Amino acid sequence: MISLTIAGSDSGGGAGIQADIKTFQELGVFGTTVITALTDQNTKGVHGVFKVTPQFVQQQLSSVLEDFSIKSIKTGMLYSAEIIEAAAAVLREQKIPLVLDPVMIAKGGEKLLQNSAVEALIEQLLPLTTICTPNIPEAEVLTGMSIKDSKDMERAARSILQMGSDWVVIKGGHTGEKDAVDRVYGHDAAFTMTTPRKKTDHTHGTGCTFSAAITANIAKGYTIPEAIIEAKKFVHLAISYPLFIGSGKGPTNHFAFNQQKGVCEVVVNEA
Ligand SMILES: Nc1ncnc2c1ncn2[C@@H]1O[C@H](COP(=O)(O)OP(=O)(O)OP(=O)(O)O)[C@@H](O)[C@H]1O
Ligand SMILES: Cc1ncc(COP(=O)(O)O)c(N)n1
């Protein structure tokens, strides 16, 4: 099984391309990569961004796709409208399932997607998307809605479905809820996934890890709901057993899922 991630490099190893290939590897999937930008980053924040030219992003993508039998693709930090356009031009010619993690702002507040790129993301990538995985601030930017409660989350998800994604997962990392509740919507299905919210500062790269696990699970042949629920287990265990490395917001633990033999209770309810 081979998957592809199109994302930015995190020199600190907790998010971006590095989180993605660690997650693929732990789930038994061979990872290939298209790098959109290098970040000079550690657990204290993003200190600089060095972007790759759109043409070279496209070259990497074409090289990977013409040689490997890629079973699933994810996108993370795409940075600019030009990079999105370059990637979309190649992806449009494929029918490979696409997980779009609409990465916009790092946990430390630094911009990972230019404001001018949001329209390109919506117009060029959402129509090609199998699963879109926004956190709440990202869902607000995509839809222009203000999200305050679960009704708003459903309205925002339905609006993103209308934009062309087959499934939407509104992640609950940023709510004030006692539990970490993610809400999943398809055109004919809706369910919630609940785990206890962990009191921890070691959440750097949670979104990347979650979307990479979904992508790997799709490559392994899981159905979309199974791929999403199993990915919730992966990220919950990664958050539950921190590595305590770095002096800022530490990375999640990509080893934990296999160390704990995948044992994690996720409560799934119809929404
Ligand atoms: N403290 C926590 N305890 C348990 N689960 C959490 C916690 N924080 C986030 N999660 C889970 O981690 C996953 C990623 O959600 P989150 O909202 O943090 O993504 P994100 O903000 O996109 O992450 P990133 O900042 O890395 O881009 C979701 O399944 C969410 O429920
Ligand atoms: C290259 C890259 N991609 C994504 C993130 C988001 O992760 P987080 O929100 O946890 O900082 C990041 N910090 N760096």
Automatic annotation (TrEMBL):
Domain Pyridoxamine kinase/Phosphomethylpyrimidine kinase, chain residue ranges per copy: 10-253
MF terms in GO: ATP binding; hydroxymethylpyrimidine kinase activity; phosphomethylpyrimidine kinase activity
Top EC class, one word: transferase
Pfam families: Phos_pyr_kin (PF08543)
EC number(s) on file: 2.7.1.49, 2.7.4.7
InterPro entries for the chain: HMP/HMP-P_kinase_dom, PM/HMP-P_kinase-1, Ribokinase-like
GO biological process: thiamine biosynthetic process
One GO cellular component, as annotated: cytosol
Catalysed reactions, semicolon-separated: 4-amino-5-hydroxymethyl-2-methylpyrimidine + ATP = 4-amino-2-methyl-5-(phosphooxymethyl)pyrimidine + ADP + H(+); 4-amino-2-methyl-5-(phosphooxymethyl)pyrimidine + ATP = 4-amino-2-methyl-5-(diphosphooxymethyl)pyrimidine + ADP
Keyword annotations from UniProtKB, A to Z: ATP-binding, Kinase, Nucleotide-binding, Thiamine biosynthesis, Transferase
The protein's annotated pathway: Cofactor biosynthesis; thiamine diphosphate biosynthesis; 4-amino-2-methyl-5-diphosphomethylpyrimidine from 5-amino-1-(5-phospho-D-ribosyl)imidazole: step 2/3; Cofactor biosynthesis; thiamine diphosphate biosynthesis; 4-amino-2-methyl-5-diphosphomethylpyrimidine from 5-amino-1-(5-phospho-D-ribosyl)imidazole: step 3/3
Family statement drawn from the similarity comment of this UniProt entry: Belongs to the ThiD family.
Protein name (database record): Hydroxymethylpyrimidine/phosphomethylpyrimidine kinase
Organism, as annotated: Desemzia incerta
